[in-house]
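Hi L., both proteins are below.
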Amino acid sequence: MTASEKIHLTRAHVRELLAAMLRIRKFEDKCAELYTQQKIRGFLHLYDGEEAIAAGVIPLLGPEDRVVATYREHGHALVRGIDMGRVMAEMYGKAAGCSGGRGGSMHLFDAATNFYGGNAIVGGGLPLAGGLALADRMNGTGAVTACFFGEGAVAEGEFHETMNLAQLWEVPALFVCENNGYAMGTALARSEAVTDIHAKAASYGVPSEVVDGMDIVAVEAAARRALAAIRETGKPYFLECRTYRFRAHSMFDAQLYRDKAEVEDWRQRGPIIRFQTWLTQNGLIHDEEIANIEAGIDAEIARAVEYAETAEWEPLEDLARHVVAEDRPEPPAPAKPSGETVETTYREAMREAIRDALTRDPRVFLMGEDVGAYGGCYAVTKGLLEEFGPDRIRDTPLSESGFTGFGIGAAAAGMRPIVELMTVNFSLLALDQIMNTAATIRHMSGGQFGVPLVIRMATGAGKQLAAQHSHSLEGWYAHIPGLRVLAPATLEDARGMLWTALEDPDPVLIFENALHYNHADRIDTNAGPVDIDRAALRRRGEDVTLITYGGSLWKTLEAAETLAGEGISAEVIDLRSLRPLDDETIMDSVGRTRRAVIVDEGWRSGSISAEIAARIGERIFWHLDAPVGRVCSEEVPIPYPKHLEDAAIPQAPRIVAAARATLGKG
């Protein structure tokens, strides 16, 4: 046993251990009381009975180490050093809270202590922690990420995906499972075929052990061993701490799934009574000292409550703060044309954009399925592995949620990951990580943490890939606050949007239409970054505005040419960005032409076209000479036969017919 692994049970140290547990217990007792008074609302999950784990592990971490907790994280936050008053104010939802009142009980964040929050999605914090640790591994910081979660998380796919990736990529993470025996109200034996949880981590090759989570000395000893191993090897370690929560799953829980005798039996073996009894019996602490400790804690809690009670509520005018970064980079200046052009394809333009990003910024790396030697499903990244190596071109397992979450964590730690999802349909496997973490962490943390991440994916139909590889779901993602959603259609945008997206402080999703990859054209040799906030006017016209994006741009331009042959002058707007929408360009054009047709490869019901039509109606209804027309995909899963597939998605003749109809020529 090395010096770093030894425990010195001096009087001062045992006093610290006992005080840490008592502080958690008393704070939470007060929170339960305040909940009954309706001062604290929402879900309140208490740590009562599990105090030895946070108190035994977290003090061993250094200030540079990171902590990812679960929704039962008040103890973790207090032990990590977040001011109790700020924690209590957050429980109230006050602006002075550690998350600015945005997170509440389940989402305590604190950048100053590298506390990356509680996560209310069971298992959702595991990939985030893995990604934070990956960033530290890639940067050689020597820091460790400690991730706390309950035994219910081991049934989630994200647990298994994280264990596999953590061991595969050898990330310095300490995974601490707080096994309290019940996932909400379901006993472990009723929900898991194999109840030996540490064995599940061991099956992925992660060193793991079981420890009595009610014994703070045993927990600290195990944590010392684990952290020493991580710091020596740089690889993950897993601790299963077997514990018990004395209170219900949450304050809403009637707790009908276990009898009082069981709870009382565990209470007699609780970590505080057990440790305190041992200390007093061995003369390591006296009743008077304990009374003094408790009095000090009571006074601290009283100050925290007073702080929360008197703190201000965030003003209503700040409602929209911290959805995206307030300090945004200036839009890039347009690249000065060189006058020289080269023939290239959309695929090659995107590859060149990735190559350029990897060359310019050492924080950039790419990961996804088959992105290495295979070059991804559409060969966009072919050749980059040989050029930049496996550390920056990372082939992943088929675990979209896992590696997307790793990308989110790495971005939160300051890296600039590019995550490639093979197709938009597969992105739904990562939707939890995209929506519940990437899109929300800035808001829930009160602006303390951001996710400067780019996620690329192929979208659209036309290649006879049938229903599970062909849909256009970008409109779904455009519904989610906190994301930026781009749909580059031209070679210049394929080349330049990635550059600008990687400078953005928030998560950016780039949808690349599968039919575009082979599209060839000439591009200026000096092509560079482009503005991702503004729509582009691709063709001027006077009679009708055709509004589109991505895969339908070229069909819309073809339709405009056909209309010109009939004497109808059509203006074509390429949205390029679906979130945010460039309302100014849309309204300016439609206000002039007084007619609009929106072309959208998504389904008509609940589509981005419906949103744009509604905005036109709200803002310039009295300027219109005809109802807004829409050309969308038919309300069917994308069929396999070519003739049915073509009929299911917008085509130039349908766009022409819709434009004629707005002019009364249908």
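That was the first. Here is the second:
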Amino acid sequence: MTEKDRYVQMESKIKSSGRKARETITLKENEDTSMATSQKLEEHFLTCTICTEVFDNPCTLVCYHTFCRKCVVDYTKTKPEAISAKSLLCPFCSKMTKVCDPDRPVEEWADDVKPSFVIQGLLDSFGPGSKDPTNCTWCHAEGETTPASVWCSVCDESMCDRCARIHKRLPSTRHHDVIDLSGEMNIPRKLKIMCNNHKDECVKFLCKDCKKLTCQTCCIIYHRKCESVVTLESELPALKSKLLNEKENLRQKQILIEKKVDTVKSNVITEKDRYVQMESKIKSSGRKARETITLKENKLLDELKEISERHIEQLNADIKSGEISVQMYRQQAELIDQTLQSECDMDVYEMYQGCDAGDVEDVGHTDLKEKGRIARITFRQDSDKLSRAVDDLQLGEIDVLYEGVLDLAATPVLRDTMDVTVAGDQHDARPLDVTALVIHGTYTVVTTDKRNMSVKSFYTRDNQLCHSKLRLDSQPWGLTKLQHNQVAVTVQNKTIISVEVNPELVLLSTITTNKQYFGITSLTPSTFAAGSLSPPCVDILDMTGNVLRSVSPLSSGTKILNSPYFLCTSRTGNILVSDWCTYCVLCLTPEGNVVFTYPPTGHTTQVHPLGITSTNTGDILVAFNSQNNVVHLTESGQFVRNLLTAGDGVDHPHGVCADGRDHVYVCNFYSGNIKVFK
């Protein structure tokens, strides 16, 4: 063999080694790409938004949102309106999907809801447990890892050379089409959808009349009279065209949302700077308040020091004067003693004459209490006044503008019906007043139940509806929010209680009053207004129950308050009074001046107003018990419209309130529930 031939052989071996190396690299590259694609699909398309895990037994609702069956069932169980409607509720868009057999347990409602073909196909191809085309499926089942060389499109499996030979010898698979994997070949992986009724037949037809995919047998049996039954394959171009249009729409929406996200990101930076500035201002206000307190403290201490030093100086002078008198008495006594021991009678007589004539000064009886002397120093502290001053101390106020401002021009939609009767109640509930709080991010509804003599809170925790109940000794009535987690309640045994909402209820204090109050509303952190029937008036009280001022306005010399059952505070700090017997709503200043009345004075219509609330835009909502409606008034007391009526489910309404999430809550007194409107 010549050297030239050897060079050719070596050149061939080198090329062969290079080719094998490149094939190995390509194989690993494809394997890595496949793994990366699978991971990306799992993260972005195959993950349930409720549990944030890869879909487990997924189902696609009518809104085309997909969730794990267990997740969507667990969420539906927390929504009474969905249970009542016999439907699965989408957590994302709140659309309802009717179930086939609502008489079955709720846990089985999602069993008949299938996942979309796209989701199921992605799960089969890229989800956990999907087949890897780069390695032999048969060897993998035996615990071995062998590179695949062919792909069987019928078996939907990859095989190595050895397994491919076995596959070709088997009578059941010898005629299957196999694809060589040695080149850069895309593997066609079509998902076979089997018919629910005929398990051994694939779905290949589309009935346009019924809008349903079917197998051939279903077409013959169930769709003989349908006019438009076509093959699914023939419809694919039109369907793909529509999907491309939908994709473009989604892309435009995506671009729009991305722009909004960028804007929000910019706002985050701006708002953070604003928060830092506000924090600095709050600290500055606090520092100034502390400096003022320290200044007053030092002034008191300086005054005390000056007076106490003068007092001590006077006392020390008294001590010195007393000591001198004692010394003089001692010396005089010694002279008398010496005289008595003298043998000279003349000395005794002269001493006697001196004492009898008052020669000895009576220093011991000097008046030590001249005018202007300090008798005693005391420190008088008014603890109540100090407490009120601290409570009324205003470093400033934080005003929050919510995006969910109540849109009173929109049509209200019933979102929930809360049954106020709970376990342990002896009677059906009678909710009187209501307010809504946000406690540690949990939206909480608090209401007074007159018939069961209790205050109740309702909230959702761990996707479960929860409640708390505080029993009272007498019937409660009015309810007002004091702080973000505290409410005050009027009780019909002449008391006002304060309750902490955690959202569980905890009694904080009981204030005994001289009158029985009904409506109540918070005015400042240290004062509130309460309505009395005997005599008819609105009292301004401090937090200890002391009446600071009593308001009883007149109209043409006649008192216009009779039964102030419900009160609330307007955005401007005025008192809105719902008076049952005079058929009107009044707006009063805390000083007692009438801002407006509704209906206006002289109006002949007689309606009974009860619950009243003011929104964050200043609008007023009033519940009219006799008309079964909730009326919308402007901030100046002008009628706008009937916001809610009996047709919306309002039945003898009492308490009403609006929260910061554009929700309105109405107490249906005799129905024993609270209607929640969006």
